[in-house]
C-alpha cells in the first residue's frame, strides 16, 4: 500500500512535466491579466548561458502542464467556496461587483491621508505653469481626474472598508485649482446623473464601460470647444445604438485567474455612423489598445491636432475623442511633456489622471518651461 502511494505521488507530481515534454503548454494567456514569461533562449553567448537556468525556471512556473486549470480551480474554490478574493489586488464586493485594491486604490477609497497644503499647491503650480505655457502658444488645455469605480459605486464595496473623511484628494486638487484659469473638468456630476439611469462601469473591470466613457467624453469635448471652437461638437447618445453583450470577465477577473468563469454583461454603444479616425501607430492596433504611445489620424482632415496625456481610463475614450482631431497622440504618462507637445505642433492638450494616482504620483512643475 505504501509503495502504491509513493508511486501515485510521483506520477501526480510528474504529470505537469510530462505534459510539457509531450508538447502541451499549461498556460492560458487569455485567463491572466499579465505578460507570461517567454521561453528561454540560447544565442551562443556566455550571458545567455548564465541566464538560462533562471529563465527556464520562470518559464516553467508560468507554463507547466495543467497550470491554467489548477490556477482556475484554486481561485474558484476560494471565491465561490470560501467567499474571498483569490487575489490580493482584487476586492470582492457585493452583488457580483469587484474592485481594484492596489496602486493607491484602498488609500483613495478610505481617504485616510489627505494631501498636505504644500502638495495641493504643487499640483496647482504644475497645472498653472502648463496652462500658461500652452496659452502663450494658443494651445487649448483641459485637465481632468477620472473617478475610480468605487467613487461612483461605493454601495457595493465591503462594509468592512470605510471612508475616514468626506473629502478626497480629488476634491482637494479641484478646490486648489479654483480661480487658477485652468480648465479643470470634474466628471463626477454628470457621471452621477448617468448612473441613475444605467450602469456606467464594468463589474469585473476597473474602468467605465462605453456608456460611462460617453459621458466623460462629452464633458471633455465641451471644455475643449470653449477654447478651440474649431473642434466639432461631441456626438450625442442618439448617435449610438445601445447593445448588451455577454463577454468574458475583464481585467479584475484576469487578476484572479477567472476570466472564463466570471462573465460580464458589457453595456456597449455601437455608432450609427462610421467612425473616420484610424490608428496609425502602432500599425494594426485597436483604438482601445493600452499602448505607451498610440496615434490616430483622420485621412485628409483639417481638424485641429491633439496630444493627450493619459492612463488606462482614456482607453475607452480613444474611439470617441479621435473623431474630433485630424491627428491625436495618446501618451501613457501623468506628467506634462512640453517637448512632446512641440514635436506634434498640436492645437489641443488634454491631461487625464485617475483619482487613485493622486496617492503615488507627484507632479513636477519644474518640468514645464517658464517660456
Which structural traits does this protein have?
single chain, 371 residues, alpha/beta, seven-stranded mixed sheet, two-stranded antiparallel sheet, 12 helices, 11 strands, 36% helix, globular
List the helices and strands and how they pair.
Elements: H1 2-21, H2 46-63, H3 67-81, E1 90-92, E2 98-100, H4 105-110, H5 117-135, E3 140-146, H6 149-152, H7 169-176, E4 183-185, H8 188-195, H9 210-227, E5 240-247, H10 251-255, E6 264-271, E7 278-281, E8 293-297, E9 305-310, H11 318-321, E10 327-332, H12 338-344, E11 348-354
Parallel strand pairs: 3-4, 3-11, 9-10, 9-11
Antiparallel strand pairs: 1-2, 5-6, 7-8, 8-10
Structural commentary:
The chain has 371 residues and is an alpha/beta fold. The protein folds into two domains: 2-65, no CATH class; 98-241 and 270-362, no CATH class. The chain is 36% helix and 16% strand. It contains twelve helices and eleven strands. The strands form three sheets. The protein has a seven-stranded mixed sheet with strand order 4-3-11-9-10-8-7, with helices on both faces. Strands 1-2 form a two-stranded antiparallel sheet. Helix 8 runs antiparallel to helix 9 (210-227). The longest helix is centred in the first third of the chain and has 20 residues, at 2-21. The protein is globular, with a radius of gyration of 24 Å. The protein starts with a helix and ends in a 17-residue tail after the last strand. The mean pLDDT is 88.
What is the alpha-carbon Rg in Å? 24 Å
Largest sheet: 7 strands, mixed
The number of domains is: 2
Count of helix runs: 12
Spans of at least 5 consecutive residues whose pLDDT stays below 50 are none
- Along the chain, the helix and strand elements come as HHHEEHHEHHEHHEHEEEEHEHE
